[in-house]
Amino acid sequence: MTQSAETTQNKPNNGDLGAQYVADVRQRFPAAVIDEERQTRDQLTITVKLEYLPEVVEYLYYKKGGWLPVLFGNDERTIHGNYAIYYALSMEEGEKCWIVVRALVDPARPEFPSVTVKVPAAVWGEREIRDMFGLTPAGIPDARRLVLPDDWPEDLYPLRKDSMDYRQRPAPTTNSETYSFVNDLGDSHNRIIPIGPMHVTSDEPGHFRLFVDGENIVDADYRMFYVHRGMEKTAEVRMGYHEITFLAERVCGICGYAHSIAYANTIENALDIKVPPRAQWIRTLLLESERLHSHLLNLGLVCHFSGFDSGFQQFFRVREKSMTIAEMLTGSRKTYGLNLIGGIRRDILETARKNTIALLNEMEAEVITLIDMLVNTTNFEQRTKGVGILDRKVARDYSPVGPMVRGSGFKRDVRLDHPYAAYASVPVTAFSFDSGDIAARVMVRVKEFFDSTAQCRYILDNMPTGPVLTEDFAYKPYKYALGHTEAPRGEDVHWSMTGNNQKVFRWRCRAATYANWPVLRYALQGNTVSDAALIIGSLDPCYSCTDRVTLVDVKKRKVTTVPYKDFERYGIERKRSPLAK
Amino acid sequence: MTMNSFKYIPGESHYVPEQAGVDAAVAKFKTALLHRLKRSAYVYRIDCGGCNGCEIEIFASITAIFDAERFGIKVVPSPRHADILLFTGAVTRSMRMPALRAFHGAPDPKICVSYGACGCGGGIFHDMYSVWGGSDKIVPIDLYIPGCPPTPQATIYGLAVALGLLEQKLKGKNHVEEEGEGAELIHPQTPLDVRVRIERQARLLAGYKQGREISDRFVNLLETHKLTSLKRHVQEWLEEENDPRLKEIVGQLEKTLHATLKGGSRSA
Amino acid sequence: MLKLLKIVKDAGEVTIKYPFAPANFTPAFRGKPEYNPAQCIACSACAVACPANALTVETDLEKGTLTWQFFVGRCIYCGRCEEVCPTRAIVLSQNFELAVFNKEDLYERATFKLCHCLECGRPFAPQKQIDYALALTAQAGAGADEMETLKIQFAICPECKRRNHLNDHLSTLCDLQTSGEK
Fold first, then answer.
1. Looking at chain C from residue 94 to 133, which residues have their Cβ under 8 Å from any Cβ of chain B?
2. Where are the alpha helices (DSSP H) in A11-153?
């Protein structure tokens, strides 16, 4: 396992970024670009002719070092008569900036050429555009429903402005799950192990199917979005700008603060709101304290899944200190409720500052001993080294994020690539490892934990003075921009367009794990069933309920249900396989 | 296994699920169960679609610092082992059937607990198109534990209340305006524009909470002392606190005060 | 293994004593919003700011009342209500012991009388809100004569006022109402 680290203290550049990419696109596809609009110093949106969309995205992605964190639709018929689809590319080789490729779709012909064929990373986004807007990605290899529940009517598209009230609850069309699972590699000799939707290894309920040959996982597929709630629609209708910061927090219970900041940044970028420096620094501090909490949580769960429950309890004991820090600084153990557009709602006075530093130091000392204990535990290396490998090539194709991609040799981190909040002034290090296995992802988290602790201390020692909130701005309609944060699990990317009635016209929220699920399949392939829980856990989707594992013997057409406990026990003990029954 | 049916609300194209029923015999056993469980309660969590904050706090409640097992409360991995079902989340459309399967999978009698803001009333998601708006929309609930998420202390308290170890404290309230009832002015001794400007400035500098604490103390000093001796009293306060940030904020408030006084006091 | 044992030994007993001793939160902790109905002027600022709709208001024009409702079950403890309340009728406490058997115990309600317009007779704004606006105007230095005029003007509904070209005073009223937020 080779390790490398890249540190940037600063990123001085006051000029506008990204013009060269657009020039390159114009040169390569002379007839493609219709329009060009700059949102911020490092965000440019180009509108291209629909038929050129796949080629332009492919060109920027593979030829110009772009990654594709988010794509989405927008019902702009009330503005100019058409739907719009946006593909936001994070340019990370050479000049670092965002190029958003936009294309218009005629409502009379609700269809667009699928980019997935050329850039696999577009697959979930395009399926979601189909679900939410009824625009068909022509030629997409995987056309199944993605986001909407199985019992949702076929032709009701929630995000069309004129389709329905945000509260409308149509009659369920079915009482059973109808999602069809894909099994490219499996044949009738393979057994299928469904896991979930209630199970131990997910942030949200999800349903996994492992296609196995004996003990070996041949393929895997999953059905997520069990917790699809309809937040994006509600944000457009029920809420004001400030209220969405509180809704965004509840996208995820662990990276909540990162989502809230990502959303606030979209509006602040779109309207060019100058957030006071002290607010930016405190936001950065809270983002890092959230990382401390999240990484300790995941390290604890790695212990749990490798059968080391005492270690799990110890990590969770120390993790409490990070929650006390959050409570002290925000009033909530989950760093909830601190953001407004334009700044934050609480300051840090001297007592809290000193207490935070003291707790940080205590926590750091304890984690050093815990890590020492963990890496010296006999079976830790055996369970994590060479297991659950995410190949570098697969990683490049699917644009995964966070420790997942950094464990596969890419130093992607929006804190460094596109500094936001106070990251241009606070020393940040991105850590990456080449081995692509669980061990690499664990080590990325360990390194980041200590780096975050150092950042928190740096911030507390160097906070600028002045206000923590500005109200010196006015909302203007139809302005839009991206906002992003490096959450503990990778980048959260949001996009908003302001509306003309003191409400957002469109809010798009892409959580980190959304980008990581599509690669999980490849990390699972070729491993054994007993490692599945650990591999899924190393993606750090955090953990919810426990249900059961169903074994489907395709050959005998027989379904056996065993408690999930058995599956988890097997993962821990690696004896008495549930498959042997 | 019986599954819930749906009720149509005319005129709005809305449907609501009908709650899974409990028969009278089971209800009787339930009371007995509540009395007998006491120190051995097995809890099964059912995430019906929330943000997972609740799961994090349940985790905290069962690990070393809060240790709910002190009271015999143990989280179990199957509904078949459970005495208590803990429903979190606003009940998304996709989780309705899995949640009902878990509900029917747990043996009777069982206690159903609605956990967190989403469970109790749908939380911030309560009226969205893809949620049903709380666990009591699909199953009968015996106890509500509010919180977003409930802290581990609140979790321990709630489960202890469920088991009859602690008393319920909160009661519903209904106030009807009384004759002559009126709101009192805040800092009535201070000119309105002075107070409003100082409070606004303090909020921008230190947020709504610390800002209010600081401006209140500042305005109190202003009300109890003459303007000429204010500086001295402020100085004493700052020395006592010895907080550079507080010093900066109060310094700004003093400037605001003097600017407002100079500008005449009827400008609001 | 020895490392683990040493860690366990060093950590000692870490479990908190609650509920046998009070729960210790930091002073920053946000618990249940406590409501003082006497201080409330039924201006609805909290209901507008509440992201979760835990706070709602409903007017009953038949009865001429406004009912304010707080459903603590839905509360997300963000404290926006406290932030925007112009009279400090709602303040977050550290109370966290909120579990109840009966859902009805999660509701707090308060009903206020609406002022009937002096001209058209329709109920249009809470009487307490108008009284408070008058008290603020007096505090801001309005003389006795001016107050007598304002008392009448404040009791006229916006529509009648618009008809009477009294927009100036309407905006004064609005300014005073929102002074808590900005």
1. 96-113, 128, 131-132
2. 19-28, 53-58, 77-80, 123-133
